[in-house]
Write a structure and sequence with these properties.
The protein has 14 helices and 31 strands. The strands form seven sheets. An eight-stranded antiparallel β-sheet has the order 27-24-26-25-29-30-28-31. The protein is α+β, with helices and mostly antiparallel strands. The structure holds guanosine-5'-diphosphate. Guanosine-5'-diphosphate (GDP) binds at residues 17, 19-25, 43, 45, 88, 139-140, 142-143, 255-258. It is found in: Cytoplasm. It comes from Alloalcanivorax gelatiniphagus. Pfam families: EF-G_D2 (PF22042), GTP_EFTU (PF00009), RF3_C (PF16658).
Length: 526
């Protein structure tokens, strides 16, 4: 098939939601529609003991949270859908922010009982930076939830995005009857207890069809007609252009657990969400259907699969086609790399791929040479922009319980730091090892992973560091001079970059004033 046909079939998206809104459950159902699992597993959670197929680390199973970002590809209708899973917990937000730079659209899942929650607000802000088109699924209609009109109002007010309802619910909780699709003028009837399967649904065409009164009850049918009149006056009609510009979101109602209404959303996604979009390659805009392959790394993960014990760099293809044996240039280092064994990810199962296209994510084996933000091309010098790397805000000293494991500790921390969620610092003046993170949970994750993956047993002690800044200067001489003067506060990070570890904010402020020639960066340029 013509590569450009393949590219136009791609829909690459991520789910944004507050924890517990139903992201994992909906992911399961999407994979069910993608025919990737015969029966969607009951959602992870301590109670059920069953885990979602998209969760693969021990840690997340124990805690019932998603730590990793997994990538899942599945066919649906005429499209090839790439779903990039993101960790829901706020301590892993960096990972999520970077993943959102690798998608072309996003699905926002809202708990209909809770409305717009804090994480969702934050994630929407990130999507705004790139005007990512957003679809909305309002979940848990099988429970007693808030008035749907009120929830839409809240989305419009708080998230400043216009809502265009595509489906509308009939009843809720025990009397949830189904949804009416405004664009198809069809009511689809809900049956309980069918959540694990793709249901045979009964459909009633036409809002004024007497069959509807018989199917849902005359009262509910009349209420639906009245509400819709109100809704259509007060809300927006779906508009493809405004959706593509990130100004309007098509809204779908349903229950992920009951697997109802999810398919309407998925139909909307493949029909309206954009195929891979042009990207800013620094030097120029890169069009997805250019013949030559380009891409950037947005995530690195160590030891993804305990059976393989390796590090994988996740690369989003921005243009062209990957094929086995392709020679690519890593633009940061200028080095060439022949790729014989890139991976794709089917719900946690990894496979060698023969070919992949713009919009797809491939996994590259990384032996420590690839960094987050790296651009790869077939030779041209480009640099895809906009992948953030944040300075950590929390610090602890890592202390080994077995002093002989120092080498493994350094290796483990450096490799885990490549993933971008933590940073390791080696102060110049002593042999301390300082770990920095954006969220406290990261420290537990690192300790558990050091033990499980590197056989290193360690504990943490407080350290007098309140913030870190990567330092730069125009000349090497200025930097060397600074290194001498600020020696006691300087460290190298896992990648060897000079970093200033400030014991207090005031100290940082003073250092800034004393050394105007030095740039103190909060994000590392990548
Ligand atoms: P996540 O944290 O966003 O991934 O949320 P989960 O998918 O793990 O769902 C959180 C909880 O809500 C779980 O107990 C789910 O079983 C439950 N849940 C998800 N979707 C629905 C739904 O449509 N109806 C009901 N009643 N519960 C749901």
């Amino acid at each position: 098939m013509n590569p450009s046909d393949e590219i136009h079939k791609r829909r690459t998206f991520a789910i944004i939601s507050h924890p517990d809104a139903g992201k994992t459950t909906i992911t399961e159902k999407l994979l069910l529609y993608g025919n990737q699992i015969r029966m969607a597993g009951t959602v992870k959670g301590k109670k059920s003991g069953l885990h979602a197929t998209s969760d693969w680390m021990e840690m997340e199973k124990e805690r019932g949270i998603s730590v990793t970002t997994s990538v899942m590809q599945f066919p649906y209708a005429d499209a090839t859908v790439n779903l990039l899973d993101t960790p829901g917990h706020a301590d892993f937000s960096e990972d999520t922010y970077r993943t959102l730079t690798a998608v072309d659209s996003a699905l926002m899942v809202i708990d209909a009982a809770k409305g717009v929650e804090e994480r969702t607000v934050k994630l929407m802000e990130v999507c705004r930076l790139r005007d990512t088109p957003i679809l909305t699924f309002i979940n848990k209609l099988d429970r007693d939830v808030r008035d749907p009109i009120e929830v839409l109002d809240e989305i419009e007010d708080v998230l400043k995005i216009e809502c265009a309802p595509v489906t509308w619910p009939i009843g809720m909780g025990k009397s949830f009857k189904g949804v009416y699709n405004l664009l198809r003028d069809t009511t689809v009837l809900y049956k309980t207890g069918q959540g694990h399967t793709i249901q045979d649904v009964r459909e009633v065409k036409g809002l004024n069809n007497p069959e509807l009164d018989e199917a849902v009850g005359a009262d509910y049918a009349q209420e639906l007609r009245d509400t819709l009149e109100l809704v259509q006056g007060a809300s927006h009609d779906f508009d493809l252009e405004r959706f593509r510009a990130g100004q309007l979101t098509p809204v779908f109602f349903g229950t992920a657990l009951g697997n109802f209404g999810v398919d309407h959303m998925l139909d909307g996604l493949v029909q309206w969400a954009p195929a891979p979009l042009p990207r800013d390659g620094g030097e120029r805009q890169v069009q997805p259907d250019e013949a030559k392959m380009t891409g950037f790394v947005f995530k690195i993960q160590a030891n993804m699969d305990p059976r393989h014990r390796d590090r994988i760099a996740f690369l989003r293809i921005c243009s062209g086609r990957y094929h086995k044996g392709i020679k690519l240039k890593q633009c940061r280092t200028g080095k060439d790399l022949r790729l014989g064994d890139a991976l794709t990810f089917l719900a946690g199962e990894r496979d060698n791929v023969e070919e992949a296209f713009a919009g797809d994510i491939i996994g590259l084996h990384n032996h420590g040479t690839i960094q987050i933000g790296d651009t790869f091309t077939e030779g041209e010098d480009l640099r895809f922009t906009g992948i953030p790397h944040f300075a950590p805000e929390l610090f602890q000293r890592v202390v080994l319980n077995d002093p002989l494991k120092s080498k493994q500790l350094h290796k483990g921390l450096t490799q885990l730091a490549e993933e971008g969620a933590t940073q390791v610092f080696f102060p110049l003046r002593n042999n301390d090892v300082v770990l920095g993170a954006v969220g406290t949970l990261q420290f537990d994750v690192v300790a558990a992973r050091l033990k499980g993956e590197y056989g290193v047993d360690c504990r943490y002690e407080p350290v007098s560091v309140s913030t870190a800044r990567w330092v730069e200067a125009d000349s090497d001489r200025e930097l060397e001079n600074f290194e001498r003067k600020a020696y006691d506060h300087l460290a190298r990070d896992g990648a060897g970059h000079l970093t200033y570890l400030a014991p207090t904010r005031v100290n940082l402020q003073l250092a800034r004033e004393r050394h105007p020639e030095i740039r103190f960066r909060e994000t590392r340029e990548i």
